[in-house]
Amino acid sequence: MDALSSSFLSTFSTQKLLYRTTPPPPPPPSSTILNVRIEEKPQQAPTTKTTQPISTSTTPPPIPKTTSQTPSSIRSSSSNSLQTTNRKVEPSVPALIFNALDDIINTFIDPPTKPSVDPKHVLSQNFAPVLNELPPTECKVIQGSLPPSLNGAYIRNGPNPQFLPRGPYHLFDGDGMLHSIRISQGKAWLCSRYVKTNKYTLEREAGFPLFPNVFSGFNGLTASAARGALSAARILTGQVDLSNGFGLANTSLVLFANRLLALGESDLPYSVKLSSNGDIETLGRYDFDGKLFMSMTAHPKIDSDTGEAFAFRYGPVPPFLTYFRFDKNGVKQPDVPIFSMTRPSFLHDFAITKKYAIFAEIQIGMNPLEMIAGGSPVGSDPSKVSRIGVIPRYAKDESEMKWFDVPGFNIIHAINAWDEEDGNVIEMVAPNILSVEHTLERMELIHALVEKVRIDLNTGIVKRYPISARNLDFAVINQAYVGKKNKYVYAGVGDPMPKISGVVKLDLSKGDQREECTVASRMYGEGCYGGEPFFVAREAAENLDADEDDGYVMSYVHDENTGESRFLVMDAKSPNLDLVATVKLPRRVPYGFHGLFVAESDLNKI
User: Is the pLDDT score of 361 beyond 50?
Assistant: First the structure.
């Protein structure tokens, strides 16, 4: 989502934006940019007047190595090397022909006319990709100090397109890049690496894009047919191999069964690890010993008490929803297809309790008629009534699935859920998108109202209570409370979405008395924006006596006025979310999606 390189297209506005390398010359009129690889010169150590300048060559203490073999369920590729190299690729004659056809499609058949898919708009400011990867580089702590309990790594995922988009481009279409800040003994190192997906590898070897953008490349029958035919031609001529997937792995991460996975809901997870010097390495696609052969959600839920993981996938053909889980050892259990969801719905997230899994069938789904008219195949349907589905979390089939109509309830993310009254009542907290028709097209018009939904499973009565009227999303909790009743939520303030201008702390117990639930907040300042906050407990998770909010809230924050990025650590218990530490980063971190913190003890096990 470095003012040093936030405008990388020569056609972008260059106000407030600087290049790290000489910008490419503008393309000839009425033509499009061809085969431009995003690259950047290696980061130089800044010259300072301090007596102890920051050294970019210093690396964190090595993580103790463990002897292990790569499981057969990881399918690695030759692209897993950590360093990128510049190679001049001479495209074949078929490639030149297909690229020319691609340019015709992007210029005449389906040009990026809408702001939501125009790369000059979507990739402006700090949404622009960084121009290359960054090896572990030491950062400067400019305020406060990093506490010992944060020894480990905060890693955040997000889109960072490898090549300049030739045509329509949506924010969700970029290649996944992980930005990790490794913390050890009060010092910090930043590392940024692509997730070496099959798509990334094939396109890097080719030297140009091969895959159409899923979220923006199929608007209308003509555009869909043209790009579909071109993709088929690339497959038939051997340019594209889909046997290893085509996902982006750009959405989130999860730590489960001693494995760190980068996730995107259109493909299998990718297994990654932090190497001994703090670098990020992609191990390959992970299929759980061949038992996961299709995609899974980017938001699995981990029960910290049992060690189990719960997940699902959704798609455009029946069953439109499939639920499944993994035991504490990472062994996938059989699928539970949900045929009672009778039409395809956009189902990005869900929630669990100790007894149930909860799904929201919202008003966003597949819309073929809209595509025929030239629109996106995914859109909102105002005539559809939103529903919440509840299924026992250990169900072997959908026979006990119950659906409840909840008109106007449209969630993209769920915050948490829990059981009440011996499991006869469920309560769920989630941001409800009030202007759902703008979710994919005009995100700056979105307003997300955090609500608590109470469902009586016996009577079918559904009650809803507003928690906060502010525009809040990307909310997190203390991860030890997933599926259990929690009190505190930390949410990003949209100003407008998807930019996050600050973070607020909500006390859900005040919502029961219809009181204002915001009990703490920190705004980042004019022109400063962050992303999803993340809560890290001060003490080890095994400390059952620790307060739920005894810990830290962290986030990357970018200053669009100066072009600098920082890493903030805040005191979660303080009334103003007081700053504990501010870390100046050696280069900017673009706006992105979801992340997590991995403690030092867990890094040693990956």
Answer: yes
Residue 478 near residue 488, CB atoms below 8 Å? yes
CB atoms within 10 A of CB 112: 21
- Cis upstream peptide for 496 (omega within 30°): yes
Tokens of 86: 């510049």
Annotated binding site: 299, 348, 413, 594
Q: What is the DSSP string of 380-433?
A: E-TTSPPEEEEEETT-SSSTT-EEEE-TT--BS---EEEEEGGGTEEEEEEEEE
Tokens representing 377? 């195949």
Asked whether 518 and 457 are in contact (CB, 8 A), the reply is: no
Check if the beta carbon of residue 457 is closer than 8 Å to that of residue 510: no
DSSP characters over 159-200: E--SB--SS---GGGSPEEEEEEEEETTEEEEEEEE---HHH
Which helix (H) or strand (E) element contains residue 274?
A: strand 270-274
| The model's pTM | 0.88
Side-chain half-sphere CA neighbours of 114 within 13 A: 18
Q: Backbone phi, then psi, for 383, in 5-degree steps?
A: -80, -10
Distances (CA, A) of 337 to 222, 358, 398, 436, 457: 33, 14, 7, 27, 21
Residue 73's pLDDT band, with cuts at 50, 70 and 90, is: confident
Torsion 216-217-218-223 (CA) sign:
positive
Report d(CA 510, CA 563) in Å as an integer.
Answer: 39
Element (H, E) at 226: helix 221-236
**CA–CA dist 603, 66 (Å, integer):** 11
**Binding site residues for Fe cation, as ranges?**
299, 348, 413, 594
φ, ψ for residue 331, nearest 5 deg: -90, 120
**Dihedral (Cα; 332, 252, 255, 162), 10-degree rounding:** 100
Mean pLDDT, residues 310-336: 96
SS (H, E, C) 236-269: HCCCCCHHHCCCCCCCEEEEECCEEEEECCCCCC
